[in-house]
Amino acid sequence: MTPTAVIELGRQAVEVTLMVSAPLFIAALATGLLISIFQAATQINEMTLSFVPKLVAIFVTLVLAGPWMITVLTDFMRRLFESIPSMIG
Fold first, then answer.
1. What is the pLDDT of residues 8-35, one digit of tens each?
2. What range does the domain containing 26 cover?
3. What is the membrane topology listed in the Swiss-Prot or TrEMBL record (predicted)?
């Protein structure tokens, strides 16, 4: 296995990780932004106010994007396992 192949495999792993985690991070970011705007408008400075909506948004996003996330992960793992013989020899 060449160093180039190792770097390419690592790049693909990071790419898949970012693709799978992006919907959850975006949902948390958007929810946090909306809650922050609400807190600024109403002058309610309660730190725990943003926790539950973020948790709900992440859960809903996981339910909606979960099948796609599982498909991306299983496709990557299948490609990885199928390429083991070519990596060895």
1. 999 999 999 999 999 999 999 999 999 9
2. 3-88
3. Multi-pass membrane protein
- Across 68-77, average pLDDT: 97
Rounded CA Rg of the chain: 19
Q: Cα angle at 80 between 78 and 84, to 5 degrees?
A: 115
- Torsion (CA) 7, 12, 17, 19 in degrees, nearest 10: 140
- Torsion angle (degrees, nearest 10) of CA 76, 80, 86, 89: 160
Q: Tell me, what's the pLDDT at 67?
A: 97
- Give me the number of domains the chain comprises: 1
Report how far residue 39's alpha carbon sits from residue 81's, in angstroms, rounded to the nearest whole number. Answer: 49
Can you read off the two tokens belonging to residue 29? 């970011």
